[in-house]
Amino acid sequence: MKLLLLTGMSGAGKSTAFKMLEDMGYYCVDNLPIQLLKSFVDLADTGTLDKKIVVGIDVRNGNAMKLLPDILQELDEDDKKFQVLFLDAEDEILIKRYKETRRNHPLSGRERIAAGIKKEREDIGFLRDEADYVIDTTHLLTRELKEELEKIFVDDAEYKSLFVTIVSFGFKYGIPEDADLVFDVRFLPNPYYDTKLRPFTGNDKPIKDFVLKYQETQTFLAKVTDLIKFLIPNYIKEGKNQLVIGVGCTGGKHRSVCLANEIFAALAGDESFGLKIEHRDIGKDALRGK
Q1: What is the band of 257 on the pLDDT scale with cuts at 50, 70, 90?
Q2: How far is residue 272's CA from residue 160's CA, in Å, rounded to a whole number?
Q3: CATH fold label, 2-153
Q4: Which pTM does this prediction carry?
Q5: Residue 7 in contact with residue 14, Cβ under 8 Å?
Q6: Tens digits of per-residue pLDDT, 133-155?
Q7: Closest listed residue to residue 219, CA positions, set 261, 262, 176
Q8: What are the beta bridge partners of residue 164?
């Protein structure tokens, strides 16, 4: 029997993950009363149920959550094998998702959503600490969450606890609020002032050739990639799940896009973490008619 306990923060995507795991062949039981968990596992272990099972556990169990540590210990002592998948997201994103769906947090009552989130973190924090897998959905699209689940539970690929997002942006549109590291590349020559180059973006060869021909660019890339490669394994060791690296120029169209691509390429060969790239402001000047 392969038993997975699916838990995490309300609004982090557990319902979506349940549907995905069901499509992957798992027998899914959501919101099982904690008092019945051990009996359910005993029943499943007799072969009565499918061999791949997901049980959803979250704060809807109320005060019974306090019983869970002892029950999990009993399962360990009975040599019942299980894994814990914890879905998480940043508080600001959870609040935004609740507002978009016009739902209230199950623990907020008459208080603000933020109060419910704070209480939930206190109630289920021990599960995050004990989880075999922690997936932060703050920056994940639905298809990206599916890809992560398939890698772990279908392909049996090695789990990557850290997901790195490289974001190019324009300072005139503001620094990404969720950026952990920000690199300012406005010190480099700006192709914007060449009218022949201006229509292109950092994804195009003419801009790439212009930006990368300077020694300052090469020195910057060498130092930055060396720093990031030093930091990533230390972030993983400390349990960090998301790292957002911002690369900014004036408008987010030329230099930052080119250099974000170069940093992405330098990191792409490392399989110890997940990696993706976003060009936040690449088309904004065109939209504004500039």
Answers
A1: very high
A2: 6
A3: Rossmann fold (3.40.50)
A4: 0.64
A5: yes
A6: 999 998 888 888 888 888 888 77
A7: 262
A8: 243, 275
